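Fold this complex.
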Amino acid sequence: MTTTEKVIAIVAAQLQRDPAEFSADTNLQEAGFESIDVIETVFALEEEFGIDISFNANDESDSFATVREVANVVEAELAKKPSA
Amino acid sequence: MRRVAITGLGAISAAGLTAGETWAAVRDGRSAIGPIDCKRGERLTVPIAAQARAYDPASYFPQRRMSMLDRFAQFAIVAAREAFADAGLDGEDEAVRLAPTILGIGVGGIDTLDDAFHSVYGQGHSKVHPMTIPRLMCNAAPSLVSMDLGLKGMTYALASACASGTHAIGTAFHMVRGGAAQVALTGGTEACVTYGTMLAWEALRVLSYENCRPFSRNRSGLVIGEGAGMLVLEEWDRAHERGAHIYAEMIGFGGNADAGEITSMDKDNAAEAMRLAMRDAGLPPEAFGYVNAHGTGTTMNDKLESAAIHLAFDGAPKPLVSSSKAVLGHCLGAAGALEALVAAKALEEQIVPPTANCTEPEGELGLDFVPEGPRSTNFDACLSNSFAFGGLNAVLALRRV
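Structure:
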């Protein structure tokens, strides 16, 4: 499973929808994400990938528009992890 | 209906161990936020909080009593003693003996619970301290205050998260105004800077890691505080006849529920809560020269509370608006009580306290947030806003003597 596929699985589970409806270009807000969905998804990503994601709901630059942007953030954090 | 006087104040906060020290810091815009000190909190990432670092329980309680007292109850007792003494109440007086004690609490004895769970889950013990239950229950604070001061009126804890203190004072105000009590002890208390609780706040992604800057473009979130605020409310004629000092008059209380989202606020309902408080006070918006804002320092609160104030004061001159949370932190169940105390002192001294750390006031919000420092001005009445998680709005209205 690629990072993007894992992100789609988490995002789809958050919205209780079929992962097949999502692609890397899916816009999360258009897909129905509200502020609480974002916070819960960040938590789910941290648990799934064993990473820490810097996210403050008060910082408007801390936002994820698409699945691809989420996957990029995850990849960047994974790259910081010491290799096993 | 009877008029209601505020005749006693007590406080403990990051800014000081008395009402006077707490008010002076808020008035002067001296922030009491500092490095966090949290038991077992090594893995916390949030570096700051507004804690009562100068507080030493040994100065107030004998060691033997400590096993009964969670920190949130200690704060309540210390601040209540101060308010009681400040009002010059006579414990032998029948009206004082029958005084209700109504306190707002956010989460209760969470320090006790954190210790107990650490012992069980962390250290593998199979038993916890025998006083765990009486320490952690939310009504421990009002019960212990009533015992400490010998107050035997209707006594309970009231919970509405960040609006608890405001709801408690409003409820006690209605009791005195309606004649159910001649004297009431009311306020709020909170002490929840524990590892477990702070982790939970971190998870919500609303904390600032830098400072609390309400209504400022460089805002970065809220900072958790702790403390207690206590007020003595008293039937006006009784207070007047016994020659008590009256800080301000409590004149209105309004509240409602958004029946919407659990963590977001609704500007229309928040505005309606302010209108309800003004209507309860029997005064038009023009009479209110100052609003002590909920002002948590989050992006959402800044926008929606500002919009709500515009709606509530539609067609009237806009009041000065400031938040005390950059000085005291967000003291949750105690916040509304500490801020009611600030409102009373502001009216008494005719000084509007500033919004500390508001170094880049957001012009688009269209209000004067008093960023430069304390402002001397004449104003007859003010509001104190609290908007809680759960969509619970509560607003107090106060008038100068």
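Chain A has one domain: 3-80.
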